[in-house]
């Protein structure tokens, strides 16, 4: 029973995988930020392109 107790205490105090978990959380946060930014930029670029094409098509139809 004492060895089981020592084993459990040893697992509790072991911090060997802690760095890997922290790095994974940082990478996940950065990836989420990049995905959000790219999504917003895509919407802005599509809106700009649509505005430009509408402006060019209106110039061609009105003869100005």
Describe the model.
- This protein is 89% helix and 0% strand.
- It is rod-shaped, with a radius of gyration of 28 Å.
- With 64 residues, the protein is mainly alpha-helical.
- The chain has helices at residues 2-13, 18-62.
- It contains 2 helices and no strands.
In short:
With 64 residues, the chain is mostly helical. Helices cover 89% and strands 0% of the residues.
Secondary structure elements and their pairing?
Blueprint: H1 2-13, H2 18-62
**Annotation, overall tally of beta strands:** 0
Oligomeric state of the chains in view: single chain
Total of DSSP H or I helical runs spanning 4+ residues: 2
Q: H/E order of the elements?
A: HH
Question: Termini separation (Å)?
Answer: 92 Å
Structural class: mainly alpha
- Report the β-strand fraction as a percent range: under 5%
**Rg over alpha carbons:** 28 Å
Quick one: overall form? rod-shaped
Overall residue-averaged pLDDT value: 85
Biggest sheet record = none
Low-confidence stretches: none
Indicate the percent of residues in helices: over 70%
């Amino acid at each position: 029973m004492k060895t089981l107790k020592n084993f459990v205490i040893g697992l509790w105090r072991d911090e060997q995988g802690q760095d890997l978990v922290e790095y994974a959380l940082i990478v996940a946060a950065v990836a989420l930020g990049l995905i959000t930014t790219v999504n917003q930029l895509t919407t802005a670029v599509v809106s700009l392109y649509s505005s430009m094409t509408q402006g060019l098509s209106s110039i061609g139809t009105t003869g100005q």
